[in-house]
């Protein structure tokens, strides 16, 4: 593999939605390619109704407890959910279908999102809603209101999910400017990190001063922009080292570094190990 595969939802469906109820041990998505590490151009949601599972996402084996809700953001590198002892739902959905207010909640943190364990009331709401959504999803789509019905039910799912995660983050859905700016900065990190490296350049793209961006990120995350820029660079480097066969020099150039020696020193400084040693360790 020369790079990390990107899976497109449009290759699977023209509805902007893939929905399935999985049983213990079943392959969640009917595509063997999903078994290997990849990125998606869409959101993935998981609801574990019975039993527990896990998913490998960006080098963390994330445990998914029983009755938990979890999601994977577009571009995050992951493997398929390990559901050997779990039943539940998988929902793959086009990012464009998710209301901006809900995306703000889902993408509000710069650290890896955590599972949300549902109480009995929310669990029943999700069960009822997804069961109805699945009935409509499986219907003959010739009807004039087929898409409208599906998308309306999806909107309810997103709103309830965002309510759960909003409570976890102790946020207000009327998002403050600092939280909004943090979310916009995170979006830029994932899309621009291969070409943009300086805090000043990110600030310019966000139409704020470098000092203001630094102040907001320190206040909301505890760290300045330079910290998060380096973290994103190193995470992308780790992904390419583990999941691709690119050389360290090729990875440096892919990430926008013309001086691969500088990139190697930066990697060692941040991780405490060389890029080659990291690849050898994780590919044992």
Automatic annotation (TrEMBL):
What is this protein's record name?
AraC-like DNA-binding protein
Q: Which InterPro entries match?
A: Homeodomain-like_sf (IPR009057), HTH-like (IPR037923), HTH_AraC (IPR018060)
Top-level division of the source organism's lineage: Bacteria
Q: Where is the HTH araC/xylS-type domain?
A: 183-281
Q: What keyword terms does UniProt attach to this protein?
A: DNA-binding, Transcription, Transcription regulation
